[in-house]
């Protein structure tokens, strides 16, 4: 039996000790999120046994069916954060508008954005789902939080992370000092350090994309995906395909094993499908901290200045050289299509 372990609490405190000016508020906020993750993980484990799987009967603001666990996860995170005095405003995939903390609560200095249960269409088939979060320091000067506090570019994040509810529950986070992973030990209810300072391979084994959209992509994206398969002369050595349809699980696998995930725009989703503020940006922060990269095809994801809460973006993320190959191919094919009068979109 191992007697020396590093809990997430101890790890966060050790990191904070390097900053004499730190007040501990961010560390406590990260514990609040870890607590919410444990509650959600427990609910997901029980989901097959009690009748909480399935649709809630409502649609969320994106027009998608809400699953009961989506609702539970969303409420759990809000309840774990709103009375702590550490948060001024929240933004969730499941809520149309920003969520300032209630009037009776103390107002804190952080804005938190989250996708409470990403990939939830996988729940009914017992596959991995996740929670994604992004933390910004408030920029509004007084009162409860405002839209300006959540509408900040990803490069201003003070922390970001995700929780993957898979065969085990893992939490990966960064505060800008590397990306670190913790695995939940269900017997003691603690997240224990299992992946310190994750570095993703520069070139990956896998490419991950929903290829059923192939006919809806522009020629640049089609060429890039053919290139990843090793099907074109200018391509890379052939990669294996892996796609679950759960961003957290697809991203996590590629982060550890190396690979590139892409969700480009297509004729049905001209701005892409994934959300900038609580899906792409936090994952991009983790990817860069692990020496990977993330782009929308033209711009670094972390540089995009948002103008609305549920803004979507094309996303190419993962191993640095693979992301570069995809972006270069799209730009090259798109510009040659423009020269020859072909129709193609400027970004992914
Ligand atoms: P969700 O937040 O409603 O679950 O949607 C986001 C999910 C991502 O996890 C995943 O990468 C993507 O949608 C899969 O989309 P598709 O089924 O079109 O491949
Ligand atoms: Mg999502």
Keywords:
single chain; 348 residues; alpha+beta; Fructose-1,6-Bisphosphatase, Chain A, domain 1; D-Maltodextrin-Binding Protein, domain 2; 2 domains; eight-stranded mixed beta sheet; five-stranded mixed beta sheet; 8 helices; globular; binds 2,5-anhydro-1,6-di-O-phosphono-D-mannitol; binds magnesium ion
What does this structure look like?
The protein is α+β, with helices and mostly antiparallel strands and 348 residues long. It has 2 domains: 8-195, Fructose-1,6-Bisphosphatase, subunit A, domain 1 (Fructose-1,6-Bisphosphatase, Chain A, domain 1); 206-340, D-Maltodextrin-Binding Protein, domain 2, CATH 3.40.190.80. The chain is built from 8 helices and 17 strands. It has helices at residues 8-17, 25-47, 68-82, 147-150, 219-228, 247-257, 276-289, 320-339, and strands at 55-59, 65-67, 87-92, 99-100, 110-118, 129-137, 157-165, 169-174, 179-185, 190-195, 206-208, 240-241, 259-263, 274-275, 293-295, 312-313, 315-318. The strands form 4 sheets. An 8-stranded mixed beta sheet has the order 4-3-5-6-7-8-9-10, with helices on both faces. A 5-stranded mixed beta sheet has the order 12-11-13-17-15, with helices on both faces. Bound molecules: 2,5-anhydro-1,6-di-O-phosphono-D-mannitol (AHM) and magnesium ion (MG). Residues 64, 93, 115, 118-120, 210, 245-247, 263, 273 line the site of 2,5-anhydro-1,6-di-O-phosphono-D-mannitol. Residues 93, 115, 118, 279 line the site of magnesium ion.
């Amino acid at each position: 039996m191992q007697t020396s372990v590093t809990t997430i609490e101890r790890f966060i405190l050790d990191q904070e000790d390097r900053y004499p000016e730190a007040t501990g508020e961010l560390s406590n906020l990260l514990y609040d999120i870890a607590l919410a993750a444990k509650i959600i993980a427990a609910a997901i484990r029980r989901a097959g046994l009690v009748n909480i799987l399935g649709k809630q009967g409502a649609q969320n603001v994106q027009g998608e069916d809400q699953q009961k666990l989506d609702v539970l996860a969303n409420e759990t995170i809000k309840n774990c954060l709103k009375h702590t005095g550490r948060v001024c405003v929240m933004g969730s995939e499941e809520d149309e508008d920003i969520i300032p903390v209630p009037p009776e609560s103390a107002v804190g200095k952080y804005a938190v954005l989250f996708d409470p249960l990403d990939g939830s269409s996988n729940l009914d088939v017992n596959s991995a789902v996740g929670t994604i979060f992004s933390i910004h320091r408030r920029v509004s000067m007084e009162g409860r939080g405002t839209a300006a506090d959540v509408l900040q570019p990803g490069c201003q994040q003070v922390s970001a992370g995700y929780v993957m509810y898979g065969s085990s529950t893992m939490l990966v986070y960064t505060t800008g000092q590397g990306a670190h992973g913790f695995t939940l030990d269900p017997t003691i209810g603690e997240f224990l350090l299992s992946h310190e300072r994750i570095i993703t391979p520069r070139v990956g084994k896998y490419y991950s994309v929903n290829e059923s959209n192939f006919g809806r992509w522009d020629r640049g994206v089609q060429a890039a995906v053919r290139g990843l398969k090793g099907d074109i002369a200018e391509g890379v050595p052939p990669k294996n395909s892996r796609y679950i349809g759960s961003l957290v699980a697809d991203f996590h696998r590629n982060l550890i094993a190396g690979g590139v995930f892409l969700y480009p725009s297509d004729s049905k989703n001209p701005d892409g499908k994934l959300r900038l503020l609580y899906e792409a940006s936090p994952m991009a922060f983790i990817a860069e901290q692990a020496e990977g990269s993330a782009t929308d095809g033209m711009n670094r994801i972390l540089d995009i200045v948002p103008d609305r809460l549920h803004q979507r973006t094309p996303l190419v993320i993962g191993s640095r050289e693979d992301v570069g190959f995809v972006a270069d191919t799209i730009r090259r094919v798109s510009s040659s299509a423009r020269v020859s009068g072909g129709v193609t979109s400027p970004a992914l």
